[in-house]
Amino acid sequence: MNEIVELSRVELEQYVNDDPVRPSIPLEDRIKTTRKTFALKEDGKVQAVCCVAYGYGIPTQESDLHSFGNEKDDEPYVIMPYTVWSYNKGAGRELILGILDNVREQYASVSAQYKPRVITLSPKTDTAARFHIRNGARLLANNAETDNFEYEV
After folding, report:
1. What span, in angstroms and rounded, lies between the C-alpha atoms of 112 and 137?
2. Considering only CA atoms, which of 35, 45, 42 is closest in space to residue 15?
3. pTM above 0.90?
4. Exposed end of the chain (fewer CB within 10 Å): N or C?
5. In Å, what is the CA distance from 130 to each residue of 61, 65, 134, 136?
6. Which residues is 146 bridged to in the sheet?
7. Which CATH class is domain 2-151?
8. Domain limits, the chain
């Protein structure tokens, strides 16, 4: 049976060097209070990993993640998956969709104006674009270094 779990620092240390999308982000930046790392596990074995940042505004480049988290006037609250990788075909998709289901469930009774937005910080690759569009996201912004895709909450 598959389950989505939050990885501890010790668990993440085993997998962080496998990140093909954002290998330059150090472990310490992935475990801040405004960050979480989720894994899809099957029979206790990690199948996919996704790092998520929580904050205000919409980062458009990797360096924006450093200040992401602080509340800003008139900026939306954003849940931002900024990297995902999988060890088995389809596991990344299952993990992203599971994270979305959890967010939707958590905010189901919250009025629309207070719901967070789920917006990615994605590399500018055809693979990333296909991944997000096939999983129900829409292209929100085409930036110089990244693309932002938004999932409906």
Report:
1. 18
2. 45
3. yes
4. N
5. 20, 23, 6, 10
6. 123
7. alpha beta
8. 2-151
Helix-helix angle 91-106:126-134, to 10 degrees: 50
Phi, psi for residue 88 in degrees, rounded to 5? -140, 145
Beta carbons of 100 and 126 less than 8 angstroms apart: no
Q: Which residue has the tokens 């790092």?
A: 51
State the DSSP H helix or E strand holding residue 54, giving kind and residue range, or none if neither.
strand 45-56
Structure tokens at 70: 């602080």
Neighbours of 92 (CB within 10 A): 20
Q: How does strand 117-119 pair with strand 45-56?
A: unpaired
Dihedrals phi, psi of 120, to nearest 5 degrees: -90, 160
Q: How far apart are CA 70 and CA 83, in angstroms?
A: 20
Q: Which two tokens stand for residue 48?
A: 């996919």
Report yes or no: 47 and 88 within 8 Å, Cβ to Cβ.
yes
Of 2, 73, 84, the closest CA to residue 36 belongs to 84
End-to-end CA, the chain: 25
